[in-house]
């Protein structure tokens, strides 16, 4: 196992269990404890973990950008629930935009059963996923390649997105707060998501329950910038009341 593969495996374990122990990791991966300590030091320097005595804990900061493959494997059940609900509100023949979030990958998988969709995305992962979906016309935004998120971002991405008007835009964010609104950790991603929202008649926020009450670095929009929230659990009453007052439809598993 390469060092980067081992570190990603440790990070996935941190995501699942919130903490790891040096001695246990040493035995699991067949390397010295000193090697594991160096791995944890690298994860801490990257802002992904916080070293503690004998191990490390996950960094809960919403502004930290986890590697895409780690984010994709986080809360899989919740993302699959969201994907199923999104699929239920997308009609055959629709035009949609999907962002480059890990949630959007699960949504794209679910949408492959639809017919005559036109899908515009800046997600490299989704472009690869849709190669075997003959009933869906897929348009890539172009833009600068962002390695950590498997995305195309920047002004060129915005330029392409501004050329279209679609039925639905579906985005996810790192933080969703009643005061701060929709926020993300990366400015280029945030700008592209803003452009996607402006291009759509129906503006869907697809976000799992762990993002509620969180605030990340840069603004994407406020409650009035979305028309629908799709999530994996029934939100608290204060959220449901806020959605009602803002005229936002909230869809969640019954």
Could you characterize the architecture of this molecule?
With 254 residues, the protein is an alpha/beta fold. It folds into two domains: 3-60, Winged helix-like DNA-binding domain superfamily/Winged helix DNA-binding domain (Arc Repressor Mutant, subunit A, Orthogonal Bundle); 70-251, 3-Layer(aba) Sandwich (Rossmann fold). 39% of the residues lie in helices and 24% in strands. The chain has ten helices and 15 strands. It has helices at residues 3-17, 22-29, 33-45, 68-72, 76-89, 102-111, 124-129, 155-161, 187-198, 237-246; strands at residues 19-21, 49-52, 55-58, 95-98, 117-121, 136-140, 144-146, 151-153, 166-171, 175-177, 181-184, 200-206, 218-221, 228-230, 249-251. It has a seven-stranded parallel beta sheet, sandwiched between helices. Strands 1-3-2 form a three-stranded antiparallel beta sheet. The protein has a three-stranded antiparallel beta sheet with strand order 10-11-13. The radius of gyration is 19 Å and the shape is globular.
